[in-house]
Amino acid sequence: MKAIDIIRKKRDGLELTKSEIDFLIDGYTNDLIPDYQMSALLMAIYFQKMSKIETVYLTQAIINSGERINLDQIDGIKVDKHSTGGVGDKTTIALAPIIASLGAPLAKMSGRGLGHTGGTLDKLESIPGLSTDLEKEDFIRNVNESKIAIAGQTGKITPADKKLYALRDVTATVDNISLIASSIMSKKLASGADAIVLDVKTGSGAFMKSLHESFSLAKEMVDIGNEMGKRTLAVITDMDQPLGNAVGNSLEVIEAIETLKGNGPSDFYELCVNLGVHMLILAEITDNIDDAKKMIENSISNGSALRKLEELIENQGGNPKVVNDYSLFKQADYKTEVKSIKSGYIKGINAEMIGRAALAVGAGRETKESKIDLSAGIILNKKIGDMIDLDESLAVVHHNDMSKYEEAKELILSAYIISSEKTAPKKLIHGLVLKDEIIRF
Question: Could you confirm whether 116 is annotated as catalytic?
C-alpha cells in the first residue's frame, strides 16, 4: 500500500477503505508519512468530501492512534456533554453538578480555550486551589463516590488529531464537515462515555455560522456516535449573542454559581434545562421529559446541585467557600463601563466581537502558549430585545490594564446593533438531531 495511490484515489472522488485510512493515519502519527502527502490528502478530502462510512473509519483510526479511557470501573451509564464552543458558554460548570446530584455519573474530560472561545478547564481553574490534573485512580474514585469529576484530557488521547488539526490549520482545510466531526467525536469517544449529548452552536459566535451548517455537522457527529455504539444526540443552540451575561473565566464561574442558586440569566438556565433533560434520559435516570425538567428544577431549588458543585471543588483541591464568597476569586483592578452612543432596542450582538473584546483584555489565548488573566472579562447589561437609552451602560469591562480597555470598548460598541424598532428576544433552541430523526423548532 502506498500513500500516493490513496491520495490519487481520494482526489478522483473514490471512497477509501478502512485499511487505507488506517494506513494513512497510523503512518502520519508515527512520522512515516510526511506533511506534504497528508496535506495533499486533506485538500482532496476538502474538495471531494467523505462518505458517512469513511468518516466513521477516520474517527476510529484517530481514536486508535492513542489510548482510550476505560470507565468500566464506574457504576452506571456515564453520560457526557460536549459543546462546539462559543462565547460565555459556562454550561458544564452549572450542568455537571445538576446531573451528578440527580444520580447520573458525570466523568468529564474537558479542554482549554483558544481565541475567542473559552475553555472549561480555564474557567474551573479560576477557583482558588482547584486542579483539573487528576490521576486516573482519583478521577474514577471521585465519580464513584460523588458522581462527578472534571479533568483535562491526557496528551495520550488521539495524538493523530493534534497533528492533523495543526496541519489543517495551516493548509486552509479546517472547514470540512467530516474532518471537524471526526476531530470532535474521536476525543469524545476515546474519553469513555456511554452516551453523549452534543450542544452544537450556530450563529456569529459559533464555529458554524449558519443553521444549515450546524445541522449538517450535528447529523455527522450523531451518526458517528451511534455507528460506534454510543447513544448520541445533538441539540442545535443559538450563539448569535453571548450565552448569559458574563464572558471571562472567573466571571462565568460566578454566573454558573448564581444559576445554581436560582438567580442565573434566563437563556443560560433554559440551556441547562434543555441539555440536562436529554442527559438524564440517556443516563436512564428517567424516560420522561417532564419528569426530567422537574428533577432539574428541584435540584436547583433544594440546593443539591449547589452542594454537588461544592463537593466537586473540594474533591479537586479547591476552596468550596467561593460559592458564597466571590471575593475569594482574583479581582480585576478596574471595572469600566461601556455606555451606549444611541438609544433604541438591541437588535443584535455579534458574539464573536464580544469574545474578541474579552480576548483583548486578557480573558483568552491568542496562542496555546498565551497566559490567561482569569479575572478579566465582560459583563453584558443588555441582550437582544432589551431597550437602551443614550449613555446607559451596555457592558462593564473587568480589566487590569487601562491601555487594553479602549480596544475592548470599540469592539463592544461595534458588536451591538441598536434599532428604533422593538426586537423580539432570540430563539435559543433551534432543533434536535436524533439517531433517526431531525426536528427543527
Answer: no
